[in-house]
Amino acid sequence: MALVLVTGGAGFIGSHTVDRLLSLGLDVRILDNLQKPVHMKGKPDYVPEAAEFILGDVRDRDTMEKALKDVEYVFHLAAYQDYLPDFSTFFHVNSVSTALIYEIAVARKLPIKKIIVASSQFVNGEGIYKDKVGRFYYPKRRSNDQLERGLWDFLDDTGSKLEYIWTPETYAAPPNQYAISKYSQELMALNFGERYELPSVALRYSIVQGSRQSFYNMYSGACRIFSLAYYFDKSPTIYEDGRMKRDFVNVHDVVDANILAMNDERTNYQAFNVGGGVDYTVEEFASIVAREFGKEDIKPNITGEYRFGDTRNACSDITKLKALGWTPKRSAAESVKEYVDYLKAQTDLKDILDYAEKSMKSLNVVRKPTKSP
Ligand SMILES: NC(=O)c1ccc[n+]([C@@H]2O[C@H](COP(=O)([O-])OP(=O)(O)OC[C@H]3O[C@@H](n4cnc5c(N)ncnc54)[C@H](O)[C@@H]3O)[C@@H](O)[C@H]2O)c1
After folding, report:
1. Computed from CA positions of residues 259, 262, 266, 271, in that sequence, does the dihedral angle turn out positive or negative?
2. Which residue among 6, 54, 234, 345 sits deepest, i.e. has the most Cβ atoms within 10 Å of its Cβ?
3. Among 35, 101, 223, residue to substitute to test ligand 1 (most atoms within 8 Å of Cβ)
């Protein structure tokens, strides 16, 4: 039976991928260092006994050599994901580990059939916009001056609001250390893969949702924050005007995409968006979470504050992967239900809420407009 290595296999997407691979009858090896704060309480119960588990760091050559032994497929999902300015860690964990996989595979002439690298929608940055006469705009970021005036949308020279369009894989404008490291992984996978005939694919996941997403991961975002707020009967905080758009993809749809990428040669040496195909405003998304709790009477608090570094809109064009037969099947409401069921099964929700609130404050990223528009 083919052996599949899943780095980060104790994590959210990794563990669901591991389950699917086992159910398909494949042998699975996990390489994971049970990184804190993702795993505050050690190895999660959901990690199956049926998978071989190597506790180790993807940056360590000896460990990676051991992990790659006799492997036919690699899912490289382990990653450092945060908002902290320890820039080098992003490249040590995300980029160096990817380089190491290819370095070892080339040096040892490993018979690997496919390497699937987790990229991110974040690579798209602020994406692409269009004005009224159809001219395209590729904004890098909103200026501090604009944000201090509370002007949230991108505007053309005449002050008219630009229209956001779904971003295709041909575009990349990584806005921060995490996105740059993810883009570097993508470039390495496609370049080294093609040059050394190691079939490779990079998947740019949109915001992924479902059970097992760490409650201690700052990255897990809106679903966790809104769910905790509604659970404790608090009004969730929404930044800017609540009208920024996002697409959310269910973790089982992501696993479907992973399996397709692993098996389908047409994906070789390419990047694909893996998104939910529906754009929601953050305010709409909060109302999906409120509905799941039956607490629609608790209205969100739209503060008019903003988070430094947030992108205004992030929605991925999934036409390319759909053309290969994949499609997102689960709705955002189903994802939220799965997450909320998982949350309700936890015994330490107060600790989780305290941790989330403290961490957000210490990051000090929330700001208030100080100038008039
Ligand atoms: N969850 C999302 O919404 C999302 C969106 C876009 C891209 N991604 C990408 O998908 C991948 C999986 O994300 P996730 O949400 O499952 O994250 P996660 O934090 O739940 O899982 C990551 C796993 O990697 C492990 N890990 C971290 N550093 C490691 C190291 N140095 N050595 C070995 N193991 C290490 C962690 O212990 C964890 O089990 C990541 O590469 C991430 O960048 C995730």
Report:
1. positive
2. 6
3. 35
Both structure tokens of 143: 């200026």
Q: What value does the CA radius of gyration of the chain take, rounded to a whole number of Å? A: 21
- Residue nearest ligand 1's atom 12 by CA: 77
Query: What is the β-pairing status of strands 207-209 and 245-246?
Result: unpaired
Residues 230/289, Cβ–Cβ less than 8 Å? yes
Structural domains of the chain sorted by starting position, each given as residue range(s) with its CATH number in brackets: 3-367 (3.40.50.720)
As a whole number, mean pLDDT of residues 59-78 equals 98
Judged by DSSP in three states, 316 sits in strand
pLDDT at 175 over 60: yes
Q: How many CB atoms lie within 10 A of CB 319?
A: 12
Mean pLDDT of 146-161: 93
What separation in angstroms does the CA of 266 have from each of 62, 110, 261, 320, 323? 33, 22, 8, 11, 11
Ligand 1 centre from 182 Cα, in Å?
A: 11
Residue nearest to atom 2 of ligand 1 (CA): 208
Tell me, what's the pLDDT at 287?
97
Within 8 A by CB and 6+ apart from 357, the residues are: none
Q: What percent of the chain has pLDDT over 70?
A: 97
Question: Residues for the chain: how many in total?
Answer: 373
**CB pairs under 8 A, 24+ apart, for 160-163?**
160/131, 160/132, 162/129, 162/130, 162/131, 162/137, 163/129, 163/130, 163/131
> From the CB of residue 24, how many other CB atoms can be counted at a distance below 10 Å?
14
Claim: this prediction has a pTM higher than 0.85: yes
Structure tokens given for 255? 């696993």
Q: For position 341, what pLDDT does the model report? A: 96
SS3 4: strand
Q: Which residue carries 């040590």 as its tokens? A: 92
Residue minimizing CA distance to atom 13 of ligand 1: 13
Q: Which residue has the higher pLDDT, 41 or 110?
A: 110
